């Protein structure tokens, strides 16, 4: 693996992997009542915020009540998606045997069906993290987020597409598993997406009906204000989720890899790829909770099925091990990571911003990317 082997010898890579395994084994052995109590407390807080938000919207004619209601509902949706839904569906609490915390049974408050998400995110993204033409989270099929993606005039709209994806992020996530770009290129048939589409339609219908019909109608003459409040809460959640996810995956120093580089990958090499392909966001305890601890994206990519509340506990140790081996540990405040991501989105909209074309003729994945030296 050219890019990975340049950093460590094969022996160092495997020793690095053993140190990562040791962290994982120690945390798994320590899981218990405190972890269960934590996630149950977060669930209680999320439900209380939703009840408070819905209730305050019944008094939406009073502006402070409407604002407070939208704020509470926004926080509820953020907690449901980030710290609860995302983490529970990763199997972080399957060891509890609690049906309410089962990765297979959980459904979250968003239009994206959980079953589709478990395939596109848990399997595809976390298996092939930052491997071009394998990890579909690189650009989500609509953005150019890596210089090794072959430029096309379409990408001149990169900043516009990114802004639209941020605003409608839950819908972008819903459509992600459809792989529409592959359908356009003839790599996947429309008929093969029948079950995926059926789940999307059912889930979207329930979500739209709940947020934009049922709850507004329950508030009678305040229905327009309630509908606006629900839309604002969804928008807030969308923008927040987009910002956190993109800051964990696409700042300037985060690296990508080719399929050839990751062929016959060992456990140690897989760990190394997670380190090089992720970035953290600094902040306080409440900030980390609201990000679902995806502000510790490095630790999440290393240990996706360990309860996310544990990531802050091991972050210092992971960083120290990286320093020991001379590996980068990308981290920074939200504003700096956001600026880095925004700069990359704009930069990669332009045709001259790519890697040297030494191997440009060797394209992979139906010509979507020109491999670069």
TrEMBL record:
<dbReference type="InterPro" id="IPR005804">
    <property type="entry name" value="FA_desaturase_dom"/>
</dbReference>
<protein>
    <submittedName>
        <fullName>Fatty acid desaturase</fullName>
    </submittedName>
</protein>
<dbReference type="GO" id="GO:0016020">
    <property type="term" value="C:membrane"/>
</dbReference>
<dbReference type="GO" id="GO:0006629">
    <property type="term" value="P:lipid metabolic process"/>
</dbReference>
<dbReference type="GO" id="GO:0016717">
    <property type="term" value="F:oxidoreductase activity, acting on paired donors, with oxidation of a pair of donors resulting in the reduction of molecular oxygen to two molecules of water"/>
</dbReference>
<dbReference type="InterPro" id="IPR012171">
    <property type="entry name" value="Fatty_acid_desaturase"/>
</dbReference>
<dbReference type="Pfam" id="PF00487">
    <property type="entry name" value="FA_desaturase"/>
</dbReference>
<feature type="domain" description="Fatty acid desaturase">
    <location>
        <begin position="65"/>
        <end position="331"/>
    </location>
</feature>
